[in-house]
Amino acid sequence: MKGKILVTGGTGYIGSHTVVELLSVGYDVVIIDNLSNSDISVLDGIQKITGKRPTFVEGDCTDISILRSLFKANPGINGIINFAASKAVGESVEKPLMYYRNNLNTLINLLELMPEFGTKGIVFSSSCTVYGEPDTNPVTEDAPIKPATSPYGNTKQISEEIITDFIKSGAPVKSIILRYFNPVGAHPSALIGELPNGVPQNLIPYITQTAIGIRKELSVFGDDYNTPDGSCIRDFINVVDLAKAHVVAMERMLEDKSDDNIEIFNLGTGIGLSVLELIDVFQKATGVKIPYRIVGRRSGDIEKVWANPAKANNILGWKADTPIADTMLSAWNWQKYLKDLGK
Ligand code: UD1
User: Fold this and answer.
1) How far is the centre of ligand 1, averaged over its atoms, from the C-alpha of 57 (Å)?
2) Euclidean distance between CA atoms 152 and 129, whole angstroms
3) Residue 330: how many CB atoms within 10 A of its CB?
4) What share of the chain is helix, strand, coil (3-state, %, to 5)?
5) 10 Å Cβ neighbour count for 167?
6) Cβ atoms within 10 Å, residue 25
């Protein structure tokens, strides 16, 4: 065993893929999840892929007494990967307090318990949303932080500040903040993937649900942006590639590979792809046609953003290299698997 890692939100989309990667390289994993946006059956998928079943605690990380009991019942937790958070931009505008409570209280509780239980490092899931509409692309980590346009985005900015201030205060913990671009796709086994709650807000689950016939057609939000084909540009990163970065980041902290107690990395491919280009890749990779219609812009959308991942490539020795066509195929295979399950 390499060490014991607490994964909050470990049955969720990115969490479950990261648990698989942690188990595969020999970490012991404890998951806490309140199952608010995931299903307990995810544990079966993880077990089928890895042959191992992580310890699971059903609970809410905003309750520090639940977390304290977890730390006592599972002594020797070396690191934390914190995925437990609410993540829907639109919902955060409707329910700001829920977002601030879930996302900030969870982080504060975890940080508070780390010194108490001798936990050394925490990986935090941040987002390229902190860059807002960047002045130039690709975006490096030292690009200016722009005022948040949603409570969700604000929780990511505030969380980065909370971690920074805590570490500056001399707290005996390390942190690596990972700024994700657009995570997409599913595990190649099709045994785990993204399980959206209700009508998907994000592009890929909407595409796959349209492809399988759950949705009639995809609305493409805007074709009058200042981009070559007029649709928005994003950096779509394969979820397994993304998950692997967490393992490398954890190792870096636990093995003291850096003198810095806090580090920030962009996680992206470095390639900007437009919404229309992505639809095309999906159709070619799967052979399935996506009925779509151009509609008006979605309020709050960023025109174009893609990563300069050089810092993560050079310092973490990590690279997102799964071809986008393979990623689209994995998303499609996962959608077909869900259909077989009747979901
Ligand atoms: C958003 C957030 C990001 C958050 C992520 C996950 C911003 C700027 N970005 O990313 O921080 O981590 O959600 O919740 O707040 N699109 C369509 N039709 C659809 C759905 C999407 O055309 O049915 C387009 C969008 O207009 C956008 C692109 O697809 O241009 C990607 O959208 P989406 O998957 O929702 O991700 P982001 O908005 O980039």
Assistant:
1) 31
2) 9
3) 23
4) 40, 20, 40
5) 18
6) 12
CA of 305 to the centre of ligand 1 (A): 11
| Residue ID of nearest Cα to ligand 1 atom 22 | 220
pLDDT at 1 exceeding the cut of 80 = no
Q: What is the pLDDT of residues 182-239, one digit of tens each?
A: 999 999 999 999 998 889 999 999 999 999 999 999 999 999 999 999 999 999 999 9
Q: What number of other Cβ atoms are within 10 A of residue 172's Cβ?
A: 11
Q: Known catalytic residues?
A: 152
Tell me the sheet residues that pair with 234.
Answer: 273
Cα(10)–Cα(17) distance, rounded to whole angstroms?
8
Please tell me the predicted confidence (pLDDT) of residue 342: 85
> What is the DSSP secondary-structure string of 248-295?
HHHHHHHTT--S-SEEEEEES-S--EEHHHHHHHHHHHH-----EEEE
Ligand 1 atom at minimal distance to the Cα of residue 221:
22
Q: For the chain, what percent of residues have pLDDT higher than 70? A: 100
**Exposed e or buried b for every residue in 132-162, given b needs 16+ CB within 10 A?**
bebeebbbebebeebebbbbbbbbbbbbbeb
DSSP secondary structure letters along 58-126: E--TT-HHHHHHHHHHS--EEEEEE--S---HHHHHH-HHHHHIIIIIHHHHHHHHHHHHT--EEEEEE
State the DSSP code for 307.
Answer: B
Q: Quick one: tokens of 274?
A: 């437009």
- For residue 287, give the amino acid letter: G
What tokens appear for 162 in the block?
A: 């909370």
CA distances (Å), origin 257, targets 122, 159, 315: 15, 24, 10
Question: What sign for the dihedral angle of Cα 245, 271, 196, 213?
Answer: negative
Residue 333's H or E segment, with its range, is helix 324-340
Which residue, judged by its Cα, is nearest atom 19 of ligand 1?
203
